[in-house]
Amino acid sequence: MDEKPDLRAGDRDRDRIAEMLRIALSEGRISVEEMTERLDRVYRARTFPELDAVVDDLPRTHLVTPSGGPDLLRLNSRGFRAIRKTGRWTVPPRLNLDCTWRTAVIDFRQAYCPHPEIAMHVSCHSPFGDIIIRVPVGWQVLSDEMTSGGWIRLLRVHNRPPEPLSPDGVVLRLSGHISGDIWVRYHHDPS
């Protein structure tokens, strides 16, 4: 994304960038002295833009999750409890959403997303289990791998981007099975 929110970075975020620097050193992209200087900047950084500035000249293919770090977020509802993932959070490359009787809301508008593509597997076998996905304008939400069934219903993914997609926007790829509806909402401003 062109602009990242001015969110505070945590230790896990700094470790992710430090690992990226270690890979760049092992590939000969930076020298030992340069790595030392950049690591100092990484551990002084307080926000995501400060961290990104340390690695802006390195290939984004080296953006990794530190070993042992989560690359999958599981969101499950049991019984009548609703799922809500909103506010400021860091998006992993994979999400599993398993909902039953209530509406699930997944809001990416204030989330920090370091990945160019996110895979989200959905499992919702109740016609009462709708899913609302809120994304920034410019993201692309693909649902070709979704199936639906039950009660004489066709695939019910409501997804109409308001304007052309951004070439460097995040791709959210949906897969799985639903019996309810998925509503994709695009927003200009997270507030």
From TrEMBL:
Domain DUF1707: 7-59
Domain of life of the native organism: Bacteria
Matches recorded under InterPro entries: DUF1707_SHOCT-like (IPR012551)
A Pfam family: DUF1707
Family annotation (PANTHER family): DUF1707 DOMAIN-CONTAINING PROTEIN, MEMBRANE PROTEIN-RELATED
Protein's name according to its UniProt entry: DUF1707 domain-containing protein
Annotated organism of origin: Microtetraspora fusca
